[in-house]
Design a protein that fits this description.
The protein is an alpha+beta fold. It has helices at 32-44, 79-87, 144-152, 205-217, 223-229; strands spanning 8-15, 51-52, 61-70, 94-102, 112-122, 136-137, 156-159, 177-188, 191-198, 250-257. A hairpin with a 2-residue loop joins strand 8 (177-188) and strand 9. The longest helix has 13 residues, at 32-44.
Length: 258
């Protein structure tokens, strides 16, 4: 049966962010949003705006980013057929993995109840070329016990102002309070995998938390100094996270909905 006109579709997409300029549309046109909107417009024969669950920076990857768009009137294509129709028009680094019809009030961003990010650390003496751009290369040995201790500090509800950055276009006061429900540390064959689950994350929050935890694991920062960065008084008397981890190792792993 064909797709009824005027419905809302949810896309689950994956991308290697190394050659892309992030999520949000830019004049150069080399962003995830730009590529998607061009592919949808070519398929629908008219401009279509997409909404994402959140913005990822240049170099950041996604295993299951979620977007939605409203099908223009008169388009009766089945959701299943949107997948190959769009993928033939997208660069190889960006793929639509699934498409489904959703309720008219579904919103990729505002309906989300949580997100999971992962961050990969390579401790190999020489970074494999197959992990270039997909892991932070840290050949200096990390102390896993200190790394785990530092990461555990981030669990719970905290003021993360020291672990958030401003995009520069904020028009009103931002709340920096977030709940991180779980932080996991997994040893993998060539290093470590960090996984952060939470209701939502500030701009660059995962990279700033990872940077502080790594510095502690390298002996450049004490764990109690990491703890001092959380829940600070106005003015940030203990300062900001000392290091923002590179985009290379960051993956948006999943977005949760009720």
């Amino acid at each position: 049966m064909g797709q009824a006109a005027g419905v809302r579709l949810k896309l689950t997409i994956a991308y290697d962010g190394a050659g892309l300029e992030g999520w949000q549309s830019q004049p150069e046109g080399n962003t995830v949003q730009d590529h998607l909107e061009r592919a949808i417009a070519e398929t629908a024969k008219q401009p279509v705006r997409v909404q994402g669950s959140g913005r990822t920076d240049a170099g950041v990857h996604a295993l299951a980013q979620v977007v939605h768009f409203d099908v223009p009137e008169g388009i009766t294509m089945n959701p299943f057929n949107w997948v190959p129709a769009l993928n033939t028009k997208l660069p190889a680094a960006l793929r639509v993995m699934a498409c489904e019809e959703v309720a008219a009030d579904f919103h990729a961003r505002f309906s989300a109840t949580g997100k999971t990010y992962r961050y990969d650390l390579s401790t190999e003496p020489v970074l494999s070329p197959f992990r270039a751009g997909r892991a932070w290369h840290l050949p200096r040995q990390l102390d896993p016990y200190t790394l785990r201790e530092a990461l555990a500090l981030f669990e719970g509800r905290h003021d993360f102002e020291a672990f958030g950055a401003r995009r520069g276009n904020e028009t009103e006061e931002t709340s920096f309070v977030r709940t991180v429900t779980r932080v996991e540390l997994e040893e993998i064959e060539w290093g470590w995998r960090l996984r952060y689950r939470g209701e939502g994350f500030l701009y660059k929050m995962v990279r700033l938390m990872t940077g502080a935890a790594v510095q502690a694991a390298q002996g450049r920062l004490r764990v109690d100094q990491v703890a001092e960065l959380l829940d600070q008084q106005p003015g940030l008397p203990f300062g900001k996270s000392p290091l923002c981890a590179p985009a290379d190792g960051l993956f948006l792993e999943s977005v949760d909905y009720a």
